[in-house]
Amino acid sequence: MTAAITQPSGSEGSNADTSAWVRTWSASPQAPDNSVSCVEPFENATLRQVVRVSGGGHSIRIRISNEYGTAPLTIGAARVAIADSDGGTENGSGQAVTFGGGPTTTVPTGAPILSDPIELRTPALSRLTISLYLPDRVDTCTCHGTFNALGWIIPGDTTALTSLPTDAAPLPAQALITAVEVRPDTPTKAIAVIGDSRVDGIGSTPGADRRWTDLLAERLAARGGQPLCVLNQGIGGNRMLADGIGTAALARFDRDVLATPGLGHVVIAVGNDLVFAFAFAPRTKETAGFLAMFPGAPVTVDDIIAAHLQLAARARAHGSKAYAATVAPYGGSEMYSPEGDKAREQLNTWIRTSGAFDGVLDFDAVWRDPADPTRIRGDLHMGDCLHGNDAGYAALAESIDLSLFD
Fold first, then answer.
1. What is the 3-state secondary structure (H, E, C) of 356-387?
2. What is the pTM of this model?
3. Which of 54, 133, 157, 178 could form a disulfide with 65 if both were Cys (CB 3.0 to 4.6 A apart)?
4. pLDDT tens digit string along 346-362?
């Protein structure tokens, strides 16, 4: 069954230029705090991380972020290569990464930086190993809390090593790297998905690229035609209107979505505002402590509708189409309340019927249990009645009508 609903298209973006950059992988930057698992302070260490690009091309560049850092970030050396299956690199694929023509750079506090172009042919869906040597102490590391890739902390400058050394320790979060951009061989557009933990892939197998956005990229690559990159800008616990875990979607939309090179399509999939607004009623001491991480005034369905309309309007103002995903069930989870579920159904009805979007991804229809529509089907969630498992995210990806992105 295809659950996506095609609706009249909005404004079209301009045709892609093969000499222009297109973002092919991304992770939304976050501040390290008690709500996310980020790296501890370190120095004289190499961070080696593996990311899978969605679309390919003949050269790449890497975006590194010190946006939440509290001091300038020194990069002593950097290297990129096509990854093998064991944390190493394919023979002959390694390339030095430079910044302004030099092997080192300092990223100012609160800023990102782009590397120089790197001549490295990168096929669609290939994995890259990116190594950054940090000679100085880093106390505050801009990161991404839900770690769906593979990474290691290695003492010293090991950027040139082609295999993973025995003293490599697991990296607990995506660190410093927030995007990879590519120069494609044929006109290419990007699909940016802004969302919460169900976009970020909580419950999927870590390091296996089993989020629904990863699987959508695989379907699009297999289909052929105009290449499309798929970018995951999900943050677990994220909301539309207020900060909490991560900057609110309305506030980070320009940075994480509209600034995307090659942007052609925007998917809005943030469902936490109403969930948290009605969760844990009555509240206990423990649940009140949890919800303290999510400050902000109570919200209504009308508030969330207005937020959707704002994001859709801002996307179209940048020449992109705008889509929305319905909010899937969460009955049986510790977040569930009848009031919240009623609000979820009201929002979903509006998303399906308003005509406000160029298309709808009806994830509620895919996940709900026919025997109890307030719950996710038992075979599609990770055991918490809230987040998907690999099969659940695969079902979402398979439900999407690919012609929406033609």
1. CCCEEECHHHHHEECCEEEEECHHHECCCCCC
2. 0.91
3. 178
4. 999 999 999 999 999 99
